[in-house]
Amino acid sequence: MVRHSVTPSREELDHRKATILEAVVAEYIDTAQPVGSSSVAAVTGLDVSPATVRSEMVTLEREGYLAQPHTSAGRVPTDKGYRYFVDHLRSGSIGPGQQQQIREFFTNVRGEVQEVLEQTSNLLTRLTSYTSVVVGGGHTHATVLNVQLVNLDARHHLLVSVFSDGTVLKHNVRSDFAATHVDVAEASRQLNALLIGTSLDTRVQVPSRHDHVATLVREAVAELHAEAPTFDGEQVFIGGSSKVAESFDGVETVRKVLAILEQQLLVVTLVEDILDQGLSVAIGSENGYEPLASCAVVVAPISVDGEPAGAVGLLGPTRMKYREAMAAARVVSEHLTRHLSGEDERD
Amino acid sequence: MVRHSVTPSREELDHRKATILEAVVAEYIDTAQPVGSSSVAAVTGLDVSPATVRSEMVTLEREGYLAQPHTSAGRVPTDKGYRYFVDHLRSGSIGPGQQQQIREFFTNVRGEVQEVLEQTSNLLTRLTSYTSVVVGGGHTHATVLNVQLVNLDARHHLLVSVFSDGTVLKHNVRSDFAATHVDVAEASRQLNALLIGTSLDTRVQVPSRHDHVATLVREAVAELHAEAPTFDGEQVFIGGSSKVAESFDGVETVRKVLAILEQQLLVVTLVEDILDQGLSVAIGSENGYEPLASCAVVVAPISVDGEPAGAVGLLGPTRMKYREAMAAARVVSEHLTRHLSGEDERD
DNA sequence: CGTTGGCACTCGATTCTACCGAGTGCCAAC
DNA sequence: GTTGGCACTCGGTAGAATCGAGTGCCAACG
After folding, report:
1. Does domain B2-87 have CATH number 1.10.10.10?
2. In a mutagenesis test of the B interface, which of A242, A247, A253, A256 is the best target, namely the one with the most B β-carbons within 10 Å?
3. Do A245 and B245 touch (CB under 8 A)?
4. B130 touches B320 (CB < 8 A)
5. Contact A249 B251 (CB under 8 A)
């Protein structure tokens, strides 16, 4: 986590400071109001006076865990404060009702991977009422099971390729000449011979002859391999964008966050950056996008047959309910991993 | 639309009333402020005093075209007022810059139909800064060009079908028995013989034998035809949802509208309802969804080879810039129609 | 020395008042 | 039918007063 890589030497706080900090964060998450010393004194089991709490708070503020909106208001957690809170969260589990809901979902869900991912995104939103993100992809190692070249008309053809993970790709192939059905059928045969068992990054020996069939084959292979860089097939499904309007109050903030969510590529990068850092939560500025400074993103990786294959994520305000969100993301990602690895029957 | 069915006899307004109404609507769209009699008197070429305008306004209000937020504020258009305005809009055209932008877009865009539609949605948003909707689908009459059954493992197979419009569908086919490659290849052959040239609603004669191959064929055909009802393949692409946050001020309104946009099926229905009524704009309550009461939706149909094939739409506040929005929707839909009908070269 | 109660102080939020002015409705005169 | 005149309405804004939650500081206490 960030703790290892980003903040090299993270100080620990003594028990009392930690308790106070956690109380402030918890209450602020709950109420969205600056938290005062007296309510902290009341709620913690510390049995100290507000005055003592205040003097500790001064320290915590100096060390960057807390902030004051203005002199003589209560304290509000900083990103660093949230970070401490999250890192010291004993990971909770989710309610039995939600357990049930998730189990039900995964026993009933059927259909294409994409649909499953999309539905999963909706599930996460229902579970947490935060905006959810499901990134799927990374089947780079899938191999070709079958390819087929199909005539659309004399000069337009469609290359359909089936991969071992069930993905189907299609590519338009044009020819400058009118190709006969026989040409196409023969090209199709050759393509199969050439490509079956290869993955997209395998170099294959294409015929160099100049007849129609060879040209078709070359074109088709070129088209297919042109896909390689993007084939990762990263797909994003975003659910519950309307929750953004609930999570943030400034219309302007809502707009900014929505604008980010619209850029799907950016969302993928965001989620993967977080995972690459070994994090499971990115808080405020940690996520690296200024418009998302008031957001926290919870992520959990998914894998297929042991290979990383995407992630699920939840986006909410920095004062999000971390325990619930993290638990939901974790449990769903585990189910999804199992589901995609084929432990369930698919339609 | 609504005019034909809902408001059977739509009265015309005399010239002066019409001018005043239009001035009010135009200014309100521009400023979002209630419009007073004097500014109307100043801006119209009518050469009448504010007092006269006022007395006309009283009539317009009684007839339901205008409303007052409160006594002694200016007037604000009602849905009916906007409706009159829109119905009497001499349809404008779009700026040369935008023309250019659209032309450029359509000469450069390439790739799958879906991607084109998605990109088009983004284009519309860029052009108008309203949320845009592109509904594609309705290739019900496409016929099968080629099908292919592929082994995933002994009991899981993938049926890949290519249609005359370039669509590719895939379906999982399970067998209770371990199918050999030979079985699958033979089933594949038979499926081709059976299905090529048929459309999804064509009944085909499936073999009734009980051997492995026949069972596979039956399963595959069943799977494929199960798709028929939904095959319409209605797809929605929504662009610029962040614009919602700009168009409306109440956070609550923003939330409601976003929530509607999340339900893609609902969006499709909405757009199609409007088209079915022969409308090109639905204003406020006309669209039939209470949460969209403060929205206007501009639509324009698209077709492929003469067949209706979806629509483009723009969603904004009732005080949207109708002329621009309608022009943009119309022009883009025309381009898209031409593009999808194959008048341009595709990659 | 850490802890505590006491206390003056700060400053956003709330309430109240006064007031301004855009815009209306009405009416008498043209 | 149109117009200028005029009293009236009522939302919006500005300023003043007040409130109170919460702070910082300090002296006293164990």
Report:
1. yes
2. A242
3. yes
4. yes
5. yes
Place of tokens 């034998």: B209
Q: Identify the CATH homologous superfamily for domain B96-138+233-343.
A: GAF domain (3.30.450.40)
Residues 6+ apart with CB under 8 A from A181: A151
- Measured in residues, chain B has a length of 347
Q: Residue A71 CB closer than 7 angstroms to strand C? A: yes
Q: What is the pLDDT of residues A6-48, one digit of tens each?
A: 444 467 889 999 999 999 999 999 999 999 999 999 999 889 9
Q: What is the CA A7 to C1' D25 distance in angstroms?
A: 35
Q: How far is A333 from chain B (nearest CA, A)?
A: 23
Number of A/B CB contacts below 8 angstroms equals 104
Asked if B144 and B197 count as a contact pair (C-beta separation under 8 A), the reply is yes
Q: pLDDT tens digits, residue range A41-77?
A: 999 988 999 999 999 999 999 999 999 999 889 999 9
Show which positions of strand C are touched by protein (CB under 7 A).
Answer: 3-6, 9-12, 21-27
Q: Which CATH class is domain A144-231?
A: alpha beta
Over residues A252-297, the pLDDT tens digits come to 999 999 999 999 999 999 999 999 999 999 999 999 999 999 999 9
Tokens 């595959």 correspond to B220
Q: Rounded to the nearest 5 degrees, what angle is found at the Cα of B146, between the Cα atoms of B145 and B148? A: 165
Instruction: Give the nucleotide at minimum CA-to-C1' distance from A74.
Output: D22
- Measured CA to CA, the distance from residue A281 to residue A81 in angstroms comes to 13
The domain spans of chain B are 2-87, 96-138+233-343, 144-231
| Three-state DSSP state, A154 | coil
A68 vs A249: CA distance, rounded Å? 19
CA distances from A210 to A153, A158, A203 (A): 21, 21, 20
Flag if A249 and B254 touch (Cβ within 8 Å): no
Neighbours of B163 (CB within 10 A): 23
Rounded to a whole number of angstroms, the distance from the CA of A150 to the nearest CA of chain B is 7
Using a pLDDT cut of 90, give the percent of chain A over it: 68
